[in-house]
Amino acid sequence: MRRAARVAGGVLVSALLLTGCATASPAVPTASGPATASANPNTPALVAQRTSAGLPDCDVPVGGAPPLSDGLPAVVLPCLGSERSVDLSQVRGTPLVVNLWAQWCDPCKAEAPILAAFAARASGKVAVLGIDYSDPDPAAAIRFAAASGWRYPQLVDPDAVLRSRLTLPGIPVTLLVSADGRVVYRVTGGVASVDALVATVKDRLGVTL
């Protein structure tokens, strides 16, 4: 019964989603140890743009924890408009919603205000982290994030390193990650409403918002 309920729940959530954007990025072979995106593309001008836009910088995890087989991959990504970088496998300690997006993706545009509202509602209980994926224009990405009202950190994966590491069919994709670093659920396609995401967070992460 419990398994059937979970399957039915997954079907219900999937029915609430919009169609995602496919990407033409080549798959990146899995390497031993943490993979690293290309040299940090953030220039002083981009750093100033992010600061002016009111987007927060990334918190860099302490590190040292072994990567989990069911956790976020050991991939080091630069922060958008920042000189910092983050190893995804080390992001732990708080329930987390990770959203992969790009400023050229129409479903990402549709779900952007929903994510902003969710982040405001979840503040203090569930962290939100964005990843600007396979995006050739970081300046446009910063403008998009600011216009969307996002006030949570953003990483950048310009080379689509995560395509193979997360088996991404396209974007947007939203991952629910437990406080101990396990990826417990994936939403493929745009999130339809704040209430839908809140319900999924309660069901999968055990957090009531």
Folded structure, characterized:
- Helix 3 (106-122) links the parallel strand 4 and strand 5.
- The protein starts with a helix and ends with a helix.
- The chain is α/β, with parallel strands linked by helices.
- It has helices at residues 2-15, 44-53, 106-122, 138-147, 162-165, 194-205, and strands spanning 35-36, 75-78, 85-87, 96-101, 127-133, 154-157, 173-177, 183-188.
- The chain is globular, with a radius of gyration of 16 Å.
- The strands form two sheets. Strands 6-5-4-7-8 form a five-stranded mixed beta sheet, with helices on one face.
Number of helices: 6
Largest sheet: 5 strands, mixed
What gyration radius follows from the Cα positions, in whole Å? 16 Å
* Assembly state of the chains shown: single chain
The CATH architecture category equals: 3-Layer(aba) Sandwich
**Overall mean pLDDT score?**
86
> Strand order, biggest sheet?
6-5-4-7-8
CATH topology tier name: Glutaredoxin
The portion of residues forming beta strands comes to: 15-25%
| Helical content band | 25-40%
Label the structural class: alpha/beta
The backbone outline, from C-alpha atoms, is globular
> What's the name of the CATH homologous superfamily?
Glutaredoxin
Order of helices and strands: HEHEEEHEHEHEEH
Topology (SSEs and partners):
Layout: H1 2-15, E1 35-36, H2 44-53, E2 75-78, E3 85-87, E4 96-101, H3 106-122, E5 127-133, H4 138-147, E6 154-157, H5 162-165, E7 173-177, E8 183-188, H6 194-205
Parallel strand pairs: 1-2, 4-5, 5-6
Antiparallel strand pairs: 2-3, 4-7, 7-8
Helix pairs in contact: 2-4
